[in-house]
Amino acid sequence: MAQVFHRSTNTIARLSIYGAAFIIALLGWAVYELSASPYVTEVNVAKDQPIPFSHKHHVGELGLDCRYCHTAVENSSAAGMPPTQTCMTCHSQIWVNSPMLEPVRASYRDDKSIEWIRVNAVPDFVYFNHSIHVNKGIGCVTCHGPVGDMPLTWRANTLQMGWCLDCHRAPEKYVRPRDQVFNIRYQAPENQEELGKKLVKEYKIQSLTNCSTCHR
Amino acid sequence: MTMKPNSNTRMDLEAIRAKQEAFGANRLWRGLEELAETPEHRAFLEHEFPHDPAQESDGVPRRDVLKWMAASAALAGLSGCTKMPDQKIVPYVRAPEEIIPGKPLFYATSFVQQGVATGILVESHMGRPTKIEGNPLHPGSLGATDIFAQASILDLYDPDRSQSVIHEGRISSWTAFLSQVADLRTNFLATKGAGLRILTETITSPSLGAQIQALLKEFPLAQWHQWEPCSRANVLEGALMAFGQRMNTVYRIDKADVILSLDSDFLYSGPGAMRYARDFAARRNAEGAPSKMNRLYVVEQGVTTTGAMADHRLAMRFADIGTFASALAAELQVPQAKGFEGRKSMQHKWISALAGDLLKNRGKCVLLVGESQPPAVHAIAHEINSALGSVGNTLIYTDPLEAVPDIDEGLMRLTSDMDAGHVQALFIFGANPAYSAPDFLDFSRKILKIPFRAHLGLYEDETAELCHWHIPAAHVLESWGDARAYDGTLSFIQPLIAPIYDGKTSRGILAAFQGQSDKTDYDLVRDYWKKQRSEIDFDEFWQTSLHDGVVVGTAYEPRTVKPGATLCSFDCGDAGAGEGLVSIPPEKIEIVYRPDPTIGDGRSANNGWLQEAPKPITKLTWDNSAQLSPATAQSLGVKNGEVIEIAFHQRAIEAPVWIVPGHANNSVTLHLGYGRRRAGRLGTGVGFNAYQIQTWSRLRMEFDPEIRKTGKTYPLAATQHHNIIETGNGMPVGQVDMESQNAFARDLVRIGTLDEFKKNPKFAQEMAEPTPPKELSLYPGFEYNGYAWGMAIDLNKCVGCGACVVACQAENNIPVVGKEEVIRGREMHWLRVDTYFRGDIDRPETYFEPVPCMQCENAPCEGVCPVGATVHSPEGLNEMVYNRCVGTRYCSNNCPYKVRRFNFGLFSDYTTDSMKALRNPNVTVRSRGVMEKCTYCVQRIQAAKIETEKQDRSVRDGEIVTACEAVCPAQAIVFGNINDKNSRVAKLKAGPRDYTLLAELNTRPRTSYQARLRNPNPEMPSFGKV
Amino acid sequence: MESAQNPPVIEPGHTYASVTDKISSIVLRRHTPRGWYFGFAIAFALLMLLNYAVAYLLIAGTRIWGINIPIGWGFAIVNFVWWIGIGHAGTLISAILLLLRQKWRTSINRFAEAMTLFAVSCAGLFPLLHMGRPWLFYWMAPYPNTMYLWPQFRSPLVWDVFAVSTYATVSLMFWFVGLIPDLATLRDKARKRWAKVFYGIFAMGWRGSAVHWHRYETASLLLAGLATPLVVSVHTVVSFDFAVAIVPGWHTTIFPPYFVAGAIYSGFAMVMTLAIPIRKFYGLEDFITMRHLENMAKVMLATGLIVAYGYMMETFGAFYSGNKYDHFMMLNRFGGPYAPFYWLLISCNIAIPQLLWIKRVRTNVAKLFVISLIVNVGMWLERFIIVVTSLHRDFLPSAWGMYIPTRWDWATFAGTVGLFLTLLFLFIRFLPIISISEMRVLVDETTEEKKTN
Q1: pLDDT (tens digit, 9 = 90+) per residue, C160-190?
Q2: Could you tell me the CA-to-CA distances from B433 to B195, B226, B402, B410, B414 in Å, in that order?
Q3: Yes or no, beta carbons of B873 and A210 under 8 Å apart
Q4: In angstroms, rounded to a whole number, what is the distance separating the alpha carbons of residues B610 and B683?
Q5: Residue B264: CA atoms inside 13 Å, Cβ hemisphere, count?
């Protein structure tokens, strides 16, 4: 009697068996890549802001200190966002008519806050404390990237748990002398390894990897 | 980043409506505890099974949608690509210099209850008050708070608070009200204020008192009435009887070696309760030094926390306590006690032993009488105290705290005048007589005769409904003011936040009426004190006072009094109703009215924390009940949850029965404060209103009601069960319920007498099996090189008030789940206070045991979690990682202490905006499907560690204070680093009374207990009996 | 060979053709019997109930169930263990009995395996559903992730994940491989084009050549070898969920053996419950003979006794240990709120099955059917007693509670029964419920016997 299938079916069948295995593996890999991709992590994705504030200009070129605006960074969990007041300390004198700065003046005039778009965010169940990191010799740029070169601010690191652990497991790879914390041009020396070990001892830096360090 | 103060907060009804629907749905769940223990219950169950509460309870459309969203969002997470939505950062325009984002600020102010102030410190995050702590400087609290102060912050954010001025049922405006007030003023100026009446609650505030007096000066014919449903009038009247003048009594419990409480719950309620608890606990020091351990005798009708702490307790009908007092007076041969000899026969052994002990400790003993007892009993107590030389030693008399002490008759006069049509305008400040006034006054009808009625209150309550005007009141955390503490100390009130719902104060309204509407409350208070303190540098005084919240050293001076009247007159009937001693036949049943232990006289009825806080002893939540003794229950043939009808002169209420071991026989306790008609979404229609049958607020006892079984049952939600007692059948004779028996068989609560302790200090540790040696474990033990956090709970100090439970709830964003879920055993409290009975069910000893997470070193929960969501920290904490938890509940099953709590549904309120402002920003708000538990307040630990790390030092002992430790009036809870051998907790753990629960399981708990000691009197008939 | 007194495993007078026709006709007949539709309708309705219950569970969360603190596990885990247990019979019959060359297995192994498969899929649902956040189930599997986190391998629940998934996979393979020759037969006998294609695809080009047969034999032997340890391992691991915990009534070393015995016990009961009606309905008395039923009855009796011994030792241990918590736990089972269920369990699992000692009972189809049902109930109760009564009164009396299933608990349970039956009905309709090829071999042998006698 007539064959139900064409000869080729055999080959197809065999192929499909092996194919399946690969496809599944491929999918898994794709998902992982996606979850680590800029699309999800927003790394290197500059965000539009109500005012095109340029760290490149203020910090990189004019050399403002981080703490001039982010005043709370040394003694609070939050680094602190500058009140409009802070902008106006200078911009009531310079660029007073620049249309670009109108929102700032408006904010100051009618006492309405500027609504910035958050760039560096961790989930609500993560309790990150700026002050302790700064006090233990972690530089701003270690996490926030080359802020001095950012015309519009972007996220420099994934801020995913794995990324945090990289440092929490081996702080010596990233610590710098306390006096260099706010130096955005700081280059890690050749001997970071031993310097790091030395600083870790000196600053009594613990490798805190237990959950309640960040999750409460 | 910054929280804008949330004006015009919109309310979201679904959530609580669902809860209310659920209230109707509990019928089936009643009696599940007793499944199969009584056949009719099984029948009932099978019959009822078709309608299942799960079904009725889930009419929660809006929240379901939210859950869908949550679920789908999470499912998206499955693919690994959860993308965080854009968030906004909203900085200040002009930053207030004292605020550092991310750092809380603390302000000192006062919490006022029935006029009396206790000092509090309020934690504020970016202008949002989030947590209340006690003010260590304040004599009334010494750093502790009670459940009411803790929970008051929830009222602040309550979406049910009245939010707008109401005029004749329509939304109106403050200015409109002011203009009408101005008209009134002109009219009354003409009539010298004839027919102008002001009704307030108890007022101790000097400035407000003065303001009202000033007003009365301007309008000589106006009158000021006060109304307090559960007032302390009897105390003041008692003093009047004894000394011819109203006096305030301040006890020095710390100086007393022997304390006798006649129906007084002085460790839990009334002015100074927290101070008394502190002083009492301080003298329970078993080790003896520096002073010897005190001894407490309690004679009471209901079972109170004070009674539970007693070394000797005598259950007695309310009515007989006066007789007891007079018999004691006679036994002590108090000079004025002639004519009482006849009474000696009563409880003679007991009294003589007691009298002996009192006489032995002349000058070092004190006698307290409960507020609800009639004045005569207070008078007798005053006589006895002076006869025993207590005056000046263990108690002092001072001027009354109240601005106007004669507070009781006020409402009666007012209503009669209303009826006679003498009242033209009535301003009601805070009081809610329409709900709490005795039925016979018929207040709700008579008030309608008044042409102008204005009501100021936090809620649009029963009284507001009857008034032309309702003005939303400012919460105590929103207002300026002052008040006096239990000993007269001056305490200041300052606002933490601008009135969220634009609330006003009595000060403001009075000022308006005095034609000074331009003056702010701040001006009024400040100006008053500027006048008072003219002699000193005022600004400095003002600054320090506000900073401290209290003016130290302003306690009233002791006043010398001379006892006048002879006691005999008290029971010779010439005294008015409720004044004198009554004697009712022993077989008659009496009804006793008391303010509810958690929602007071009803003003806290809409407070979820208080509604869900288990009431001491009974562990009931969300309801009041008719409480009676096992024997009485049997004679009436009723069981827990069966509804009885109690009828009194043509007025009747229906109340579910709750059997309380140790309750006086032939006596029924009814708690006031429930059965509100207009309390809010949580409080309305909950429980029954006992005011309805009360004849007069000062009559706390009436006898010989008609009690009738209705055949109905009503579901009551208790967080701890004593089945045999609850089911009523097979009531054990001469022993207590199975649960308690097992508790003691398992040495959970370890008790000894002082003598036993002196003979063998380690008795508690030798009671049970020791912990097995470390080597038994296959896994290597943890090393604790840095800190090792631990907690010690002294059962000898714990008075079982439950303040820790509410404090924990406030600190850790613990949700309120509602009555239905409590009945199903899903309450979320991280900390519970277990209650066990020992001895004879008719006169048992009652013991408390607070149970937080034990933070085991060998934690059974940790090993079984498949995803490692609960793990061990290098400092010995069992960390619970909510965001890792998938909710298998295996950890809870494997927790021998059952201290873990699971979010079976979405219990946290994600929808009510005002509640978001209340949350502690340092604690994750748990969503549905995750486990949670006590963390030793890890957020506080981490904060302290970070600060100390920055200062390059280690955490000092006492620098980290857990919420439960901070609030505890008795200082029974001590937290600290056990690696530091000098820490308080390490010392306690090294002590002989220290033991851990279920040590033989080798869980090695970090939370340990100090055994309870009793100090019985060998002379006592009950001595040695258990 | 076969001794005279034993009834044959296949009634005489059958030829290759008759066997093939009889069995394949069940699948290939033109008109589906009305009875099938009826049964399928009921099963499908229950399946829809499951969908409803699960959908609502995902919306409202586990609060719709009766579970609480202290009873964190209720019906979900009870049903999980019960279903997993039922599966075991299939694997035992197909794997172990194959290795032991028990010929009588041939006519029941096919749907016993199917039953295993369906039971496991029912069981597999519950661990997922009972989680507070089911959508995060994959956290229990070890996979590389941005959190640098692994599951906790100390937890028995993680062992479960591996045990059950392996079990499911192997059972599926086994069942499918066994089907291939028959699928080929159906392909060849089918008249409709779509049927030819449908069966053809799954027959994977089987032509019944010697090579095919040889590989087929080796494959099934290998799989049998693989499956054999699973019969023991799976329920052992499941029992660890309890034995590893410290809860009185869980924390006991006897659990693994008596869980396995219990599993086989319930499994055979279920095979019996299914076999009896099917053979009646499709007139397969010739193939599933009294011999089969009696053998299964014997297996039930044996395993039932092992279970009984398990209970005894559990009780003995509780009192002998001198551990006050175990002691109380046992007394609570005997006389506590759930005592009626405990005594019901004892009568279902221990008392009544003793009737199987009597040959008259063993050979009476009706009685066997009833007993097998009773045992199913009993084994379900066993899991209920273990899970619930142990939890509801453990160490701290203040934390004691009660567990009452809600309508949603029942709906989910009934729903999985629906899922099970639906799959079973589809299987009966579209696949040969008895292995044609193996039956042919039997025919061959039995005729051989005839010649020799």
Answers
A1: 999 999 998 988 888 898 889 888 888 888 8
A2: 19, 10, 19, 11, 11
A3: yes
A4: 10
A5: 30
A13-25: burial string, b at 16+ Cβ within 10 Å, e else: eeeeeeeeeeeee
Model pLDDT, residue B583: 73
Contact in structure between B494 and B129 (CB atoms under 8 Å) = no
Closest-CA residue to C79 (of C237, C233, C231, C238): C238
d(CA B250, CA B393): 11
B1012 beta partners: B751
Q: Which residues share a beta bridge with B108?
A: B121
CB contact under 8 A, C148 and A32: no
Question: What sign for the dihedral angle of Cα C283, C288, C291, C294?
Answer: negative
Give start and end residues of each alpha helix (H) in C190-289: 193-203, 210-243, 255-281
Determine the longest span between alpha carbons in chain A, in angstroms. Answer: 97
Q: Do A28 and C143 touch (CB under 8 A)?
A: yes
Which of C133, C148, C212 to mutate: most A Cβ within 10 Å? C148
Give the relative orientation of helices C16-28 and C156-189 as an angle to the nearest 10 degrees: 110
- What is the rounded distance in angstroms from the CA atom of residue B303 to the CA atom of residue B298? 10
Task: Please tell me what DSSP assigns to residue B753.
Answer: E
- Integer Cα distance of B520 and B121 in angstroms: 24
Q: φ and ψ at B572, to 5 degrees?
A: -90, 25
**Which of C68, C150, C241 minimises the CB distance to B825?**
C68
Amino acid code (one letter) for B100: I
Amino acid identity at B860: P
Give per-residue pLDDT as tens, B225-267: 888 888 888 888 888 888 888 889 999 999 999 999 999 999 9
pTM of the model: 0.88
Min distance A60 CA to chain B CA atoms (Å): 23
H/E run at residue B526: helix B521-532
Query: What value of ipTM does the predicted structure carry?
Result: 0.91
The secondary element (H helix, E strand) that includes residue B850 is: strand B845-851
Strand B258-262 relative to strand B365-369: parallel, antiparallel, unpaired?
Answer: parallel
B166-167 and B170-171 strand pairing: antiparallel
Token representation of residue C223 = 């799989």
Query: How far is the C-alpha of B621 from the C-alpha of B989, rounded, in Å?
Result: 34
What is the C-alpha to C-alpha distance for residues B58 and B63, in angstroms, rounded to an integer? 10
CA B699 – CA B691 distance, rounded (Å): 11
